[in-house]
Specification:
Blueprint lengths: L15 H28 L3 H21 L1 E2 L2 H26 L8 H11 L17 H9 L3 H26 L6 E2 L2 E3 L9 E3 L11 H8 L17 H9 L3 H9 L2 H36 L4
Length: 296
């Protein structure tokens, strides 16, 4: 009812009759789902999880969404301008390597240059007959030392950062609060993690310099700080507990990550040695059976 893409509007701009019908159906379907799911909580022993974790979390998330996240808008605008300048420089480099100008964002034109004009190896055509220029194809060519795919990948990454983050985040700023109000979904990930939508704030790159600069634009109010917390090697800790691996548990208790790595490496080597021994045993057993079954 709110449209899609460039024509999408906020819900308060939807015609009242369409908004009424949508809201009524939304409430009706929600009630029907409740009638189906509520009895399953007891049958599947999930009442405690629902009542002590899921339900109490709802007002917490609501408060987080309403509070929003503060960003340094001028910094994002500055980054966007910097990215735009670098994209222009990359385009000129790409055209120089290609030997002519073309639309860098056009997969069709890029495919023709890579495989028809430059005769690079490994070209694959799609169902439409056009050359495939997806990331896997370009990465393979780049690994072979071809300069054009390297620059194309750089251009695509920078264009995505600009379009998805520096430009988009500024547009998402609420004019009244000056903050970004994302939506947190409790059921958006199979692992139980929260998912962030409209906009998605979870996939901002951290390994690249550009990604880190975007992250630096998320700031705290004056007198406050942003706190980042994460579990330390949670999978290995669970493994140590569930499998009752004494050496690994002791390494964690000492708080020495180097010891943890040494224990895991030793166990991995032991596992590989055991697997190799079992393979040799199976081959010997198979050979023995063949010998025994041979006619005298």
């Amino acid at each position: 009812v709110a449209g899609t893409g460039a024509k999408q509007v906020s819900f308060d701009k939807v015609a009242i009759d369409k908004a009424r019908d949508y809201a009524a159906e939304d409430a009706d379907v929600t009630m029907q789902l409740w009638a189906r799911f509520k009895p399953r909580l007891a049958r599947e022993h999930m009442v405690t999880v629902y009542e002590t974790i899921e339900r109490p979390l709802i007002p917490v998330l609501l408060g987080m969404e309403r509070a929003g996240i503060k960003v340094d808008a001028p910094q994002l605008v500055k980054l966007s301008a910097d990215f735009e300048k670098r994209l222009g420089e990359l385009e000129r480099e790409i055209h120089k390597i290609a030997g002519r100008e073309f639309n860098v964002a056009s997969p069709k034109q890029l495919g023709e240059i890579l495989f028809d004009e430059q005769k690079l190896p490994g070209g694959k055509r799609s169902k439409t007959g056009a050359w495939s220029t997806d990331a896997s194809v370009l990465e393979e060519l780049a690994a072979q030392g071809h300069p054009l795919p390297v620059k194309i990948l750089e251009h695509r990454q920078l264009a995505k950062l600009k379009g998805t983050y520096t430009d988009a985040l500024v547009r998402e700023l609420d004019p009244k609060t000056g903050r970004i109000h994302t939506s947190y979904m409790m059921t958006g990930a199979a692992t139980g993690r929260l998912a962030s939508t409209d906009p998605n704030l979870q996939n901002i790159p951290v390994r690249t310099e550009e990604g880190r600069k975007i992250r630096e634009a998320f700031i705290a109010e004056k007198g406050c700080k942003l706190l980042s917390a994460d579990y330390s090697q949670i999978e290995l800790r669970l493994l140590a507990h569930v499998a009752d691996i004494k050496s690994l548990k002791e390494a964690f208790e000492r708080g020495d990550e180097t010891d943890v790595a040494k224990v895991m490496l030793a166990r991995e080597k032991a596992s590989l040695a055991f697997e190799a021994t079992m393979q040799i045993r199976n081959k010997l057993l198979s050979a023995y059976k063949d010998i025994v079954s041979m006619p005298v």
